[in-house]
Write a structure and sequence with these properties.
The structure holds 2 protein chains of 2 kinds. The radius of gyration of chain A is 21 Å and the shape is globular. In chain A, the strands form 2 sheets. Chain A has a 9-stranded mixed β-sheet, sandwiched between helices. In chain A, strands 2-3 form a two-stranded antiparallel ribbon. Chain A has 6 helices and 13 strands. Helix content of chain A is about 30%, strand content about 30%. Chain B is an alpha/beta fold. In chain B, strands 9-8-7-10-6-1-4-5-11 form a 9-stranded mixed β-sheet, with helices on both faces. Classes of the chains: A alpha/beta, B alpha/beta. Chains A and B meet through helix 3, helix 4, strand 7, strand 9 and strand 12 of A and helix 3, helix 4, strand 7, strand 8 and strand 9 of B.
Chain lengths: ~260, ~325
């Protein structure tokens, strides 16, 4: 089985997200970076599928040169190789991103053969555009279901489960297919020391991304007005219990 | 030129989110001086014309086809793309739910048009009919993005709960119209094949009380007192991403951007620092009570109420006090 997983490098914010003075980007001066959470799970899904069925799993990202860090991390948990579609900016608009990724996957497939599965995250943690995976899948002519909380491959069919109010839906996509993964489908493993060492040697191909610009323009990022709250201190330690229960009574939740 | 709403339904049962999309569409339509129209996909939605008219639809288009036996992202996206080609609306609006975003993205891919996702507000007037200025939410709502987009038909999803789903004073005519669609049989490949139903009961998203634990709980076993307090109050246990990443709780219990958004009457945040990822899932709670050893913790400064202390001592003391007052 041949699998491609598309991931995005995103800031790892703590309690607060600050914006740069020009309002055009997140101020990352004091932030670390990570792989967007849904995509971390997509990587784990791919590694598990390759463990079960054999084959290879390629991790691909579109981002700045530093995004190689996320590709190496994916290699450290079991991905075979990586592709960095490098851009000068930190991100591209969703249409442009999808065009570049679709073109890159076509080029890889022309050279090395088709991917049975292309996996994405449901949406990126920072951009929240909910569309890059769907656009790429359509450009490649593959069926796609987003929001997957279950994924198994049997007899050339991807069996996908997704959570809805009151239960789960099941889908059966004939391979080759694309799936958008949601966090919770699995618990991503941590890299082993051996994995970390191997990831330094994993093949990472760097290609300049190519894609026409889309029609959506960011003009400004800003923080929403914060709910001003004065915290009422109910006390310290277990002695505060009566005050807490008084409050519960007042709020009508103690029946 | 109309503003066309995608009617989200599950086998004919209307999703409440559709009414939020109707409200957003009415606001845009009144600025543009255009009518609101709705698009119902599948014969299962035939009965929805009345409620859509009550919410302002001047016209309700029905697309029926043999492969539209259930929800399917590709088939629904293709119907939507054909509706845009046939009707050339000024804008297409859906609510930014899992399905709403997915179907509009499928249509956007087919039409090669931009799609602006999870907008909190839309202003079509500033840039004319073929362009809009929007404010959309990023990072699960902890950051806002002002953006512009231009396209012959603007494709938008609105953030869930950003618009009031109440019916307007003036209903629409709700004239029924048939939208003829040509669908390739291959689009059935991503239609829902089956379902498993979950037992009814209090869930994280509907519970009146949620007792949440974070890294400070320390272990899977450490959740026992939280479980006890939740049961005493008819609530459920929730947790932060740090907890699910450590394997202490199942992901189904996670409150946060990548987990569940909760809105209980009371949320106990025990040993939780209050990182963005968690906060955006908990911020709709009506009351938040933080229990934390660190009085400077972000969650303590954001919560309405706080107890400074060790959750392993405070939580059992609260349970004991509840039992004492109940005479148990």
């Amino acid at each position: 089985m041949r699998i491609c997983v598309c991931v995005k490098r995103v800031p790892a914010p703590g309690a607060r997200i600050n914006v740069t003075d020009d309002g055009l980007a997140v101020d990352t001066a004091h932030l670390g970076f990570t792989t967007s959470p849904h995509e971390e799970c997509a990587v784990e899904s791919a590694v598990q599928l390759v463990e079960a069925h054999g084959g290879t799993a390629t991790v691909l990202t579109l981002g700045p040169a530093e995004a190689e860090e996320q590709l190496r991390y994916a290699a450290s948990v079991g991905m075979t190789d990586g592709v960095l579609l490098s851009i000068a900016e930190t991100e591209w608009d969703p249409q442009r991103t999808a065009r570049a990724i679709a073109a890159a996957i076509r080029a890889i497939e022309a050279r090395d053969g088709a991917f049975d599965l292309v996996l994405f995250g449901n949406e990126s943690a920072d951009g929240c555009n909910y569309q890059v995976g769907v656009r790429v899948a359509h450009a490649l002519g593959r069926p796609m279901v987003n929001g997957a909380k279950g994924l198994e491959v049997r007899d050339g069919v991807a069996h996908v489960q997704r959570e809805v109010d009151g239960g789960r839906e099941t889908y059966e996509l004939p391979l080759p297919a694309a799936v958008g993964i949601r966090e919770g489908i699995n618990l991503p493993r941590y890299p082993t020391m051996k994995g970390r060492l191997a990831s330094k040697k994993a093949a990472v191909q760097v290609v300049a991304a190519e894609g026409d610009e889309g029609a959506q323009r960011l003009t400004r990022l800003r923080r929403p007005e914060e709910r001003s709250s004065t915290t009422v201190m109910l006390g310290q330690g277990p002695e505060a219990a009566p005050a807490v229960v008084d409050l519960l009574q007042e709020l009508g939740v103690l029946r | 030129m109309s503003v066309l709403v995608l009617v989200e339904h599950d086998r004919g049962v209307l999703a409440d989110a559709t009414l939020e999309a109707m409200a957003a569409a009415r606001a845009m339509a009144s600025t543009l001086g255009a009518p609101v129209e709705a698009l119902c996909i599948s014969a299962q939605a035939d009965g929805l014309g009345g409620v859509l008219a009550a919410h302002g639809a001047a016209r309700v288009h029905h697309a029926r086809h043999a492969i539209l036996t259930d929800y399917g992202p590709e088939a629904w996206g293709e119907v939507r793309a054909q509706a845009v080609r046939a009707r050339a609306p000024a804008a297409v609006v859906a609510c930014g739910t899992g399905r709403g975003n997915e179907v509009l993205a499928q249509a956007a891919a087919r039409l090669d048009l931009p799609m602006v996702a999870i907008c909190g507000s839309v202003d079509p007037s500033r840039h004319g009919v073929t362009a809009v200025a929007v404010t959309r939410t990023r990072w699960g709502g902890s950051l806002l993005e002002d953006a512009t987009a231009s396209a012959p038909t603007m494709l938008l999803t609105v953030a869930h709960h950003a618009y009031d789903a109440a019916a307007p004073v003036a209903p629409g005519a709700g004239a029924a119209a048939e939208l003829t669609v040509t669908l390739d049989a291959s689009l059935a490949r991503s239609v829902v094949r089956g379902r498993t139903e979950r037992a009814a009961g209090v869930t994280l998203s509907t519970a009146p009380v949620v007792v949440g634990g974070g890294r400070g709980v320390g272990s899977a076993d450490g959740f026992a007192p939280l479980q006890e307090l939740a049961e005493l109050l008819g609530g459920v246990v929730g947790c932060s991403r740090a907890v699910t990443n450590n394997g202490w709780r199942n992901h189904a219990d996670q409150v946060g951007q990548t987990g569940t958004r909760i809105a209980p009457d009371v949320y106990f945040a025990c040993g939780i620092s209050g990182a963005i990822q968690h906060w955006v899932g908990a911020m709709a709670s009506k009351n938040i009570l933080a229990i934390n050893t660190d009085k400077e913790a972000n969650i303590v400064t954001k919560a309405g109420y706080a107890v400074i202390g060790d959750l392993h001592k405070v939580v059992p003391a609260i349970s004991a006090e509840i039992r004492r007052r109940r005479g148990q």
